[in-house]
Design brief:
By secondary structure, this protein is an alpha/beta fold. It has helices spanning 44-47, 52-72, 83-87, 91-102, 111-123, 165-172, 185-203, 219-228, 236-239, 246-258, 261-265, 278-292, 304-312, and strands at residues 2-9, 13-22, 27-37, 76-81, 107-108, 136-141, 146-151, 155-161, 174-175, 178-179, 213-217, 243-245, 296-299. 44% of the residues lie in helices and 23% in strands. Helix 5 packs across helix 13, helix 6 packs across helix 7 (185-203) and helix 7 (185-203) crosses helix 12 (278-292).
């Protein structure tokens, strides 16, 4: 076993996994997994820069994670940064801060690399199941981008597109500095148009409709599952490998799009950092399911973070 630490810093959240990995047996024993909403991508779509308060929130989480990594005695650490830090003009400031706190330089990976990690993390433990038919379509709906990966044992095709729950919310649902509550039909239509254009782009390189099993990753998808199950609190064990039907996803998405901030915040399993962006994230999921004709989505709590951990091991 090799004790490894993996950090995934996305547009909306930063996450840590500390695990013992055995590449020979394919076993990944989780020791610590945590997530912090930092909204690193706040305003990036509009300004092209990482905001000072967003950077400080991210650095505060990094300091917390540094203590956890030290406590567990991880031998190797890999820090991967995704969409927001790819887009920012001042990403050097972000890199310097992470290096000072964690002692490693964040790797600002490409969308295709992001997709590879997501596929490995999501599908490695699905091997041998006879109730899920290959090929898989793994969809990772992040804050700034969505990754599409089709494959069997290995990746066949992958594409990242700039459609995510934070980006869509900030681009279409913010007026006078606050999120429209609830959004207008025109705003929803504008989001939907962006999503459909992104799906057209993804389909140029990824055969989305050839997939037999849709596997959904990241906070928008897991939150939809939690809502579907009416969980009294967020429960990773109940969410992991749950299945949500197309009809249920549509029902939840339609409710989210007509709900108020207070109604969404009252959902027991809702993370406070997702209240304003969950409607856009759910709409991305619904549009994907409609595009490929998926009757259900298999929800995975294991994703790019697990893929990063395997890459370290």
């Amino acid at each position: 076993m090799t004790r490894v630490a993996a950090v995934d810093c996305g547009t909306n959240s930063i996450r840590l996994l500390v695990a013992d990995a055995d590449p020979e047996t394919g076993e990944l024993v989780e020791l610590d997994r945590r997530m912090t909403i930092v909204r690193l991508g706040q305003g990036v779509d509009r300004t092209g820069r990482l905001a000072p308060d967003a950077l400080e929130r991210t650095f505060a989480a990094c300091r917390e994670y540094a203590a956890v990594i030290k406590e567990h005695g991880a031998q190797r650490l890999r820090f991967v940064a995704t969409s927001a830090s790819r887009d920012a003009e001042n990403r050097d400031e972000f890199v310097r801060g992470v290096l000072d706190i964690l002692g490693v330089e964040p790797e600002v990976i490409t969308g295709d690399q992001e997709a590879e990690f997501s596929f490995t993390g999501a599908t490695r433990e699905l091997e041998g199941r006879d109730d899920l038919t290959k090929p898989y379509l793994v969809v990772d709906i992040g804050g700034g981008s969505t990754e599409f990966v089709v494959g069997e044992e290995h990746v066949r095709a992958a594409r990242s597109v700039d459609v995510g729950c934070v980006r869509m919310t900030e681009r279409h649902l913010v007026a006078d500095g606050s999120v429209t509550d609830p959004p207008t039909p025109e705003q929803v239509a504008a989001i939907r148009a962006d999503i459909e254009a992104a799906l057209d782009l993804a389909e140029r390189t990824v055969p989305l409709r050839e997939a037999h099993t849709l596997v959904g990753l990241a906070g928008s998808v897991t939150t939809v599952s939690a809502i579907a199950q009416e969980l009294p609190e967020y429960d990773s064990a109940a969410i992991h490998h749950s299945r949500v039907s197309h009809d249920k996803v549509r029902e939840i998405t339609e409710w989210l799009l007509r709900s108020t901030h207070a109604e969404r915040a009252a959902i027991a399993s809702m993370h406070p950092g997702r209240v304003d962006v969950i409607a856009a994230g759910a709409l991305v999921l619904l549009a994907i399911m409609e595009r490929i004709g998926a009757q259900e989505v298999v929800v995975s709590e294991h994703d790019i973070l697990d893929g990063i951990a395997w890459s370290v091991a």
